[in-house]
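[scheduler] slot 2 assigned
[scheduler] job type: sequence-to-structure, two independent chains
[scheduler] chain ordering preserved from manifest
[runner] begin chain α
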Amino acid sequence: MRLQDTPCGPTSTSLPATPPRQTMLKELRAQNKEAVYTVIEKDVSLIRETDDVVDFVKTRETKLDLLFESVGFISFSGRQETAEGLDASMSTRYYSRLRAVQGLLSLLNEASSPRVVSILAGGQEVKLNDEDLDLRKPGNYSIANAAYHSATMLTLAFEHLARENPRISFVHAFPGVVATPLLSRGSTGIKRLLMAGIVQPLVSLFSLSVDEAGARALFYLTSDRYSSSGSLVPLAED
């Protein structure tokens, strides 16, 4: 296997592999020693950095079989705007995800069985506040509103893209509560200590394990059940 730590775009730097990334790459290497893994580090709360990733992929690939999106975080400090004027949490859960999909549609349409899977909150959609989609107005932004608004807009966007690109399968899935550090990562100071030391351990008692969530995500990516034009793994016959 050849491992590349590759910059993409003028704002990138080649960074030493972090321990979590090293663990992931070690697991991938054990599964497939012949594959080439290219690691691209970008802040995808920013649209321009998402565009850098898309451009990097498009200059090196002629088709894209699978696009998997799961990045996101919960902000416990209210609306936090990026340099581009978008809320960082909503950007990772909707704007950047959709931007990546739109930018890579041409490569997806070249694949024999293309699929886009976004792990967020499919099935948790609500009535949109169509006068304030970005929840900028005072009193409109909350943890729940940001989550449900992002999920609803993503589902609507996928439905639109699916009609325009009938060969591509679009899956928006809700994994439930998964035992990840999501709660503590979205907070700071005393709140972060409480989340990490008390709330997170309690939540983990009834959470889905990371391994189980990963197995289900792989099923969404490969099973014929979610196929528009064939897949990697056909459904078992009864």
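[runner] end chain α
[runner] begin chain β
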Amino acid sequence: WLHPDLTGCGDNTESDSDDSSPAGENQVAGERKSRDRWQRKMVVPGCLCMASLRAFGVSAIEVVIAMLLEEVYAWDQRIIGLTIGAVFLCCIPLKILHSLLAHALSVVGWIRLLTGVALMGSCLLCKSLQMVLRVDGAEQLIVAAIVVFPTLYLSDALGSGIMHQHVLAEGSLFDGNHAQLWYNLMQGMGRFLGPWIARSTVQVHGQDAFAAQQLAVALAFLCIFETCARPYLRIKDETKQCDAGLRQVSL
């Protein structure tokens, strides 16, 4: 139950076509299959880029918050470790909430909503907001992490499920096995670059620049989903389902 429920997506894995049909039908089926393969080749790389951005953003905020709590707010390292661990555990209540309200939105709707919340959470990283919100800087950082961590993780998990729903036939560079390999590599690259670039940004340009960086990461995550993945999903009436879900939530 810890994993997102994608039963509504159906199994859209590419399969081999039947060659016993008449020539005319085979030609139409061939054109349809060619178009389908092209669409899948857009969805899978798009979801891989989303995974890399998620790993980059999460690892960056993890390292920067630990650094700021220790160097700026003089927190003990053990307390910092426990705090970051508790922040990670916030993924559990969000998953429970998603399980209870899963039918209120489509998969696309959930990714949009979660990424939008992550964008708002990234704004809390701005140091200049301390005077406006009148809160302690350390508390503001922790609240930002509580918002950004689970929302980015769950939205990427949903994107990963979509990716595996759209893998190509066995033998392709984007079949099930290769897609998981690229997914692990893209995640590793994001986790490698995230902490290094984030620390450099904070040390050279300050905390507000890091907040802008996190906003850019979350925005890029959403833009890649909207341009490279969502238009090519093999899920019928996905946009209508999303709009209906949004109306249901608003009521």
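[runner] end chain β
[qc] chain β: The domain at 43-231 is CATH 1.20.1250.20 (Growth Hormone; Chain: A;).
[scheduler] slot 2 released
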